[in-house]
Specification:
The protein is mostly beta strands. It has one domain: Jelly Rolls, CATH 2.60.120.10. It contains 3 helices and 16 strands. The chain has helices spanning 24-30, 46-49, 52-61, and strands at 3-5, 15-17, 40-42, 67-74, 81-84, 89-93, 97-103, 113-114, 119-123, 128-131, 135-136, 148-155, 175-177, 180-184, 194-195, 197-198.
């Protein structure tokens, strides 16, 4: 697997690097959030949502829609699952991180995704990206041995508990939370998740300089 960067042309299939919004205030607030040994996702954090950056993001990238701004922080080197939403997601990196990405359109008719299709992208500190609705993604991975702090921006209510789970028909089998369709790897043991990943549960190395490196 080659480690690309989000500035490479290969990333254009999955998203785009955001420009034109001053991220300084939000990045400063993100750096004050905890970075535990395990992965921690918090959907909505008032200290992030009250920044001037948040107002600009809401205006320019979500057309005034209500949004949640939280974080996904910690230490992680394993794929474990891939999810998608019915909208774009913004990832804002306070530290370096690695994104493991796939394409929704490569899910088979029987709701299986081959992990050999996953691509890895370095998300440098200080960079913000939009991941399209067709992009499969999950928790960021560590860049080397370091922990990561990545801001997550989504429409309000995304990833919250379902008020009512529909009958498990078609892609509804994947519905794991509000606006969250998840394919899990059997090795991840995610309770209640649909086992839809076939192949290796990709694990990144912890040592070395992985920038544009094949591993």
């Amino acid at each position: 697997m080659k480690l690309n960067t989000v500035f490479d042309s290969a990333f254009k299939r999955y998203g785009r690097v955001l420009k034109g919004v001053d991220l300084t205030e939000l990045l400063d607030a993100l750096k004050k959030t905890p970075c535990p040994e395990e992965v921690e996702y918090v959907a909505s954090v008032s200290a992030l949502e009250e920044t001037s950056t948040a107002k600009e993001i809401r205006k320019h990238y979500f057309g005034g829609m209500p949004i949640d701004i939280g974080y996904c922080n910690g230490h992680n080197w394993t794929l474990n699952g891939l999810e998608y939403h019915k909208d774009s997601e913004l990832n804002i990196a306070a530290t370096d991180a690695v994104l493991l990405l796939g394409d929704l359109r490569d899910i088979s008719d029987d709701l299986i995704y081959d992990t050999s299709l996953v691509e890895a992208f370095h998300l440098p500190a200080g960079t913000a990206v939009e991941l399209y609705a067709t992009t499969l993604h999950y928790a960021p991975c560590s860049y080397g041995t370091k922990g990561f702090q990545v801001g997550i921006v989504l429409p309000e209510g995304t990833n919250s508990d379902l008020a009512e789970k529909p009958e498990a028909v078609g892609t509804s089998k994947l519905l794991f939370a509000t606006n969250k369709w998840l394919l899990a790897h059997e090795d991840a043991h995610i309770e209640g998740a649909y086992i839809g990943l076939k192949g290796d549960n990709i694990k990144l190395p912890k040592e070395g300089d992985f920038y544009n490196e094949t591993f």
